[in-house]
Amino acid sequence: MRSEDALANIDVAVLAGGLGTRIRGVLGDTPKVLAPIAGRAFLGHLLDYLSTYGSRRVVLCLGHLADRVTAWLARGDSAGTIDVVCQIEPRPLGTAGALGYVRKELRSSTILVVNGDTFLDADLRAFIASHRLSGAEASVLCVTVEDASRFVRVEIGPDSRVRRFLDKAPGAGTINAGVYLFSAAFLDRFVAAGAVSLERDVLEKLPSGTLNAHVAKARFLDIGTPESLATAASVIAGRES
After folding, report:
1. What is d(CA 42, CA 38) in angstroms, rounded to the nearest whole number?
2. Closest of 209, 228, 208, 207 to residue 219, by C-alpha
3. Total Cβ atoms within 10 A of residue 224
4. Which residues, at least 6 apart from 123, have a Cβ–Cβ distance to it below 8 Å?
5. pLDDT over 60 at 239, yes or no
6. If phi over 0 gives left and psi between -120 and 50 gives alpha, with beta otherwise, what is residue 109?
7. How far apart are CA 19 and CA 235, in angstroms?
């Protein structure tokens, strides 16, 4: 599998319907996914990244300020090689609920799910290979950061399976980077169960050893706070240098 073909047959769902309350004072009426970073909208960087791995179809799970995102796409600011489908939830549905709402648009047997306010320059080909070799129905992409105080940490066994998710705590740690690979059957089960939060209602309730974990050596960016947003340009520039 070549890197540029890794996502050729995998639909991507981008969770981008959040309210962005923590950075509203900085962004105003600009949705997080359009936060200006290194001269362009964050979504543009994300789509470019997916495009390098051959992504052909991306479903945007939109909600708050969705009209700003659709207007941005209409201007032609996104990667032209990707078919971008917009689905706007009628009310806040949660991360799992949003996936349920767009389920009909996700046509592939394996689905990549990405948080719309995080970015990491991980090798997606390696992540996909890890997922397939594991035989698991669901995989989570993890990364080690110097300060895990704002993130859910992950305890991983020697078999590369998630033992449990840990409470947030200061100091270095391996965290859930908000990127997942799900089989269609796995997605259907939690959608049918009416799950609201992907993290709390689905992943954290899985039996120990169910979820495959792939730890990537990658720069990680979360634009959810003013402080992290301020560092975003240097992370993006580092990737593009």
Report:
1. 9
2. 228
3. 18
4. 3, 216, 218
5. no
6. alpha
7. 24
Where residue 45 falls (left for φ over 0; alpha for ψ -120 to 50; beta otherwise) is alpha
The residues, any chain, with a CB within 8 Å of residue 68's CB and separated by 6 or more, are: 29, 30, 31, 34
pLDDT tens, position by position, 75-122: 876 656 799 999 999 999 999 999 999 999 999 999 999 998 888 889
CB of 83 within 8 A of CB of 58?
Answer: yes
Query: Can you give the length of the chain in residues?
Result: 241
Kind and range of the H or E run holding 171: none
C-alpha distances in angstroms, 105 versus 96, 187, 220? 15, 13, 28
> Could you give the CA distance from residue 171 to residue 179 in angstroms, rounded to a whole number?
22
